[in-house]
Write a sequence for this structure.
């Protein structure tokens, strides 16, 4: 089983790389170098804050966009190209293995992509701060949270991919990401309502994936450390949420008539 | 299938399948594709590389292992398709139109390969519209027309069901009209005349020759082919163009 999951995941990764997904790194490099040079004129502190904000936001957004655009096609593209049948019809592969393998393949792609961007990012931080130290540790936490965002959005895009067309899937995925960015505000609004409305709104607010809690970019830009408790909670949240979404994706895919 | 339920996952380790249209991951090379499918089929990692190389070699793609599939011709893809169907050494091999897209040399090679796999004790089930291939390769065939089974059995048995014709060769032009009266067409080459008649009319034809001064040279049975069987089964009015003939090689 592990062998099959790895094979499917690695094939997904290889396909993304050969489809030139990593070309976004060039754009990222230009952005970071440009920002470092441009803001190098301003005072050291401001420069660092701008660079961290810009760099981490770019790592996050590039990854989210890739996650959505590849994620929505993970299943539908295989059905359209009929490659799915050569795997599910003729090989001892269970449908859930296919979904989970695809999921890990895309997460692997995004992790490698974010890892390479992080190397460039830390090089730029090193350049503007003239050194790296303990004060930069929260940046690693922020990047870890960005990876957790990727895990969430990949699971969601994959879920949409199991039952919807790529266009609708991308609309759903972008919409849910946008709404999830304001998840904590939604929870605040829900508390202001009364009676049944309050219950319903609270339910919806908690159903939406909480991307806000995974964004500590401005916090770390101001060198405020991230509490270890938040790391633990966010990790548990993403594991449970993404797990539930994957279970739903598998449930739908198991029932789909692929003839 | 193979004594297991049709949805049994483990059973799929023992089958190989070539789809009619080879849709494969075209970002992969032939070697990578076969390695991927071998992994999915649970081939022992220690043997995988050797099996992949052997399968590619057997379909004549040994030198094109590192070619990306998006750069392969239809014939090359068909060969890769056959290779992926046999890479994990399955007991039962299902091939949907294995000869399509191949040139005459390629078709001969695939025929030889099917024969080799058969000799190794594999069961091969393939579909084809080329009746000659089915007749040459198959122990047993099934004839389908518009999705309905029209006949199944050993080739010789099926062909025997078709009433055979005989070719009659003689000299003596005086008997032509009498022979043609039996519904045969006569061909003349110099002094020699020949006609193909239904076997049932042979006695009548010989009588006609005797009465009209013809001198019999030879009478040869014309062996019926699978095509004759097929046409006899579906009837001319049924339209052979829409037909689908399936050949199967079954060794239970």
């Amino acid at each position: 089983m592990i062998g099959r999951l790895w094979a499917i995941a690695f094939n997904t990764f290889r396909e993304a790389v050969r489809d030139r997904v990593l070309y976004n790194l060039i754009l990222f490099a230009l952005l970071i170098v440009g920002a470092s040079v441009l803001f190098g004129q301003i005072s050291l502190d401001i420069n660092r804050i701008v660079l961290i904000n810009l760099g981490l936001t770019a790592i996050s957004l590039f990854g989210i966009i890739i996650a959505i655009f590849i994620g929505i096609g993970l299943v539908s593209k295989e059905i359209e190209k009929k490659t799915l049948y050569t795997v599910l019809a003729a090989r001892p592969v269970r449908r859930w293995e296919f979904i989970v393998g695809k999921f890990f393949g895309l997460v692997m792609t995004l992790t490698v992509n974010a890892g390479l961007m992080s190397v460039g990012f830390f090089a730029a931080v090193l350049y503007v701060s003239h050194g790296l130290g303990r004060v930069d540790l929260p940046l690693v936490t922020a990047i870890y949270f960005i990876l957790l965002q990727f895990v969430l959005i990949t699971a969601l895009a994959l879920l949409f991919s199991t039952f919807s067309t790529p266009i609708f899937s991308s609309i759903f995925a972008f919409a849910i990401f946008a709404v999830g960015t304001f998840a904590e505000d939604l929870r605040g609004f829900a508390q202001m309502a009364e009676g049944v409305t309050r219950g319903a709104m609270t339910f919806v607010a908690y159903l939406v994936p909480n991307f806000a809690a995974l964004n500590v970019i401005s916090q770390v830009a101001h060198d405020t450390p991230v509490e270890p408790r938040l790391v633990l909670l966010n990790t548990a949240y993403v594991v449970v949420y993404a797990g539930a979404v994957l279970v739903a994706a598998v449930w739908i895919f198991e029932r789909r008539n692929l003839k | 299938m193979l004594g297991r339920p049709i949805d049994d996952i483990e059973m799929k380790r023992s089958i190989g399948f070539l789809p009619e249209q080879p849709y494969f991951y075209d970002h992969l090379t032939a070697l990578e594709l076969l390695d991927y499918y071998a992994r999915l089929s649970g081939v022992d990692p220690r043997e995988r590389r050797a099996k992949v190389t052997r399968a590619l070699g057997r379909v004549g793609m040994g030198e094109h292992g590192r070619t990306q599939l998006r750069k392969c011709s239809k014939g090359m893809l068909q060969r890769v398709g056959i290779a992926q169907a046999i890479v994990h050494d399955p007991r039962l091999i299902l091939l949907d139109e294995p000869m399509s897209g191949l040139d005459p040399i390629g078709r001969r090679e695939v025929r030889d390969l099917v024969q080799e796999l058969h000799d190794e004790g594999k069961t091969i089930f393939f579909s084809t519209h080329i009746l000659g291939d089915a007749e040459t390769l198959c122990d047993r065939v099934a004839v389908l027309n518009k999705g309905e089974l029209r006949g199944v059995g050993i080739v010789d048995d099926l062909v025997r069901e078709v009433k055979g014709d005989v070719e009659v060769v003689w000299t003596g032009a005086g008997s032509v009209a009498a022979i043609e009266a039996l519904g045969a067409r006569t061909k003349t080459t110099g002094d020699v005349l020949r006609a193909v008649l239904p076997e049932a009319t042979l006695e009548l034809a010989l009588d006609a020759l005797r009465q009209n001064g013809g001198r019999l040279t030879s009478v040869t049975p014309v062996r019926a082919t699978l095509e004759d069987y097929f046409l006899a089964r579906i009837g001319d009015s049924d339209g052979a163009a829409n037909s689908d003939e399936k050949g199967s090689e079954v060794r239970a």
Q: What stands out?
A: Chain B has two domains: 10-127, 163-222. The two ends of chain B are 11 Å apart (CA to CA).
